[in-house]
UniProtKB/TrEMBL annotation:
Any matching Pfam family: rve
Job description of the protein: Involved in the transposition of the insertion sequence.
A GO MF term: nucleic acid binding
Coiled coil: none
Gene Ontology terms describing biological process: DNA integration
Name the UniProt record assigns to this protein: Transposase
Length: 293
């Protein structure tokens, strides 16, 4: 019907509105009502186009990973009071989509002779204060030179990556180096729980000795149960989807990309919904805890 009214508007100076309405079998009152809405309609289109531009900038800035919730949250942070349904509609109409996660291969190799620590987390992946609960795991990134192994420790109060290490092996040194970084920059409290799976790297004597030296407490989930370390598993899925690369040409390039992803994007720019503070980056969440303390 809009096309019919647009045709009448275009031809009315030549043939007259009454004649065109009779010819096209539409009521003149309906045409004039449509005409009265023309300016507001054009204003809405212009506003939608401007909002789509803002959405596109945010989406590109997120490495094309943000879906509707985070795009909407970022708009609100920028002072744009827009309806979430409107954001969803415009993203759908323009084919703007968030990233979807993919499965990863498990590196867990349990040492049958080792005596793992008890599970002190119990699938409660939340902490009231930073530096009290960390979760860690190892993943492998494919490169043209072979695998690059990455170990990380996440603070459950902020989901900030406070420690990480990369190497061409996944021996105990890899997770110890990441833990030392977390201890140096994460403000770990005495007795902080350090949770992982039961991989041989985490049940090794060297790692357990380092835990005691730093006055921390070790915690291990069950073998073969990804749900016992779900927060770490979720981070790996996020990293592998949002980093944007499937195979790197060499380990040096992969290292640089991982460093940039963690330090520049994930910790400082990527929004995550906190159950109390709302949408904040991991670094902002830590700062908010510090101010509230």
């Amino acid at each position: 019907m809009n096309e019919t009214y647009a045709f009448i508007e275009a031809e009315k100076t030549t043939h007259g509105v009454a004649f065109l309405c009779r010819l096209l079998k539409v009521a003149r009152s309906s045409f004039y009502a449509w005409l009265a809405e023309a300016k507001p309609r054009a204003a809405r289109r212009a506003a939608d186009q401007a909002l789509v531009h803002e959405i596109t900038v945010i989406h590109v800035g997120s490495r094309q990973t943000y879906g509707v919730p985070r795009v909407h949250a970022e708009l609100r942070r920028l002072g744009r009071a827009v309806n979430r349904k409107r954001v969803a509609r415009l993203m759908r109409e323009h084919g703007i989509q968030g990233a979807t996660r993919r499965k990863r291969r498990s590196l867990t190799r349990a040492d049958k002779k080792a005596r793992p620590a008890p599970d002190l987390i119990g699938r409660e992946f939340h902490a009231e204060m930073p530096g009290t609960k960390l979760v860690g795991d190892i993943t492998a990134l494919p490169t043209g030179e072979g695998w690059l192994y990455l170990a990380c420790w996440l603070d459950l109060a902020t989901r900030e990556v406070v420690g990480y290490s990369m190497a061409d092996h996944h021996r105990a040194d890899l997770v110890i180096d990441a833990l030392d970084m977390a201890h140096g920059r994460g403000g770990l409290q005495p007795g902080c729980v350090i949770h992982s799976d039961r991989g041989s790297e985490y049940t090794s004597t060297r790692f357990q000795d380092r835990i005691r030296e730093l006055e921390l407490r070790q915690s291990c989930g069950r073998t073969g149960s990804c749900f016992d370390n779900a927060a770490a598993e979720s981070f790996w899925a996020l990293l592998k989807e949002e980093i944007g690369t499937r195979v790197w040409p060499d380990r040096a390039t992969a290292r640089a990309d991982v460093f940039e992803f963690i330090e520049t994007f994930y910790n400082r720019r990527r929004l995550r919904r906190h159950k109390v503070f709302g949408y904040l980056t991991p670094t902002e969440t830590r700062q908010r805890h510090t101010l509230a303390a």
